[in-house]
Amino acid sequence: MTSTSTHSHLDTIRQNIRSLEATHRLSRNSVHLIAVSKTRTADEIRDLANYGHLEFGENYVQEAIDKMTLLEDLALTWHFIGPIQKNKTKLIAQHFNWVQSIDREVVATRLNDQRPDALPKLNVCVQVNIDEESTKSGVAPEQAVELARHIDQLPNLQLRGLMAIPAITQKHIGQQNPFVRMHELFQQMRVNGFGLDTLSMGMSSDYAEAIAAGANMVRVGTAIFGPRNN
Ligand SMILES: *Cc1c(COP(=O)(O)O)cnc(C)c1O
Question: Which amino acids bring their CB within 6 angstroms of ligand 1?
Answer without folding.
Answer: 36, 38, 59, 81, 165, 203-204, 219-223
